[in-house]
Amino acid sequence: MGETVIWGIHGGKSGDADTxxxxxxxxxxxxxxxxxLSKVADREGFKALAAKTWPDRAKQKPLWVVTTGGQMFxxxxxxxxxxxxxxxxxxxxxxxxxxVEDEYRYDPSVDPGYPNLRKVKWLDAVPRTxxxxxxxxxxxxxxxxxxxxxxxxxxxxxxEGKAVAQVASAKEDTSIVAVKxxxxxxxxDFIVKALAQxxxxxxxxxxxxxxxxxxxxxxxxxxxxxxxxIDIVAHRDELGFEPPIVKVQVKSTEGKVGDPEVSxxxxxxxxxxxxxxxxxxxxxxxxxxxxxxxxxxxxIDGDELVELILEHYEQLDSKYKAMVPLKRVYVPExxxxxxx
Length: 340
Prior knowledge:
By secondary structure, the chain is an alpha/beta fold. The protein has 12 helices and 14 strands.
């Protein structure tokens, strides 16, 4: 008996299917205009349906008909109950692993934009940075639905409750081996992964302080283990007497930072001071709501931290550039098309 097949699936370019997938327990493909797909017999039939439903696109991009028909065919005819599925959520930056629980169904009442559905039971979710760079390349396929083959063992490990087997370190060769549409996300993953491995714990506070230095702040980093809930104090003047005074708490976790952590820092911020929480992961909705109502409190998650690093990369110390080696490149800017 062969190993369980594992499929990769995307929920739209902006993650618009995140609620359908994770809250309602389905996976789905779009192409709602094609209607019920259960009557189509084979791959050629799906290609013909795609060409008939979207004639303009079929004329402009003949290859699109082939790839779209192929994805429909795989979702309806090839995918089986018991197969595994990997979904990279754009909302929580985790890769969710689930098991397909039933056959294809057409039900636009569940989500009009994704009427072609399969029920799925989610087994676990792991931060993207736990996977090797190769596994992240593979899950970053430009297709909406595809079979994971080269790094399937890493995803199967999650389904089996095992630790993801790392086959490469943050210093692995990140030379471009293929042109990737998702180059920005790949770069983001690489930066966060490197920092998570190289600056875990107190060194992350030192790194964040250095980033603040490049932004024009002077910083004082608390000694390890004796910070009292404040990792960094940042200020503009030489002595640290003049406002604004910024008290910073950092979290090198790749997971969620909740309201308790954010509230704890804010309790140490005076009326004329500012609070800042920086994490490699993401903030809970409660933490975001709490901070939104505080004019002197700011949250920086992993995505925004990467933006700051890229903006000030040339000013970083050489040891950090060696830790996160990047090279400026230019890539084609694709036309803004409403592809699935």
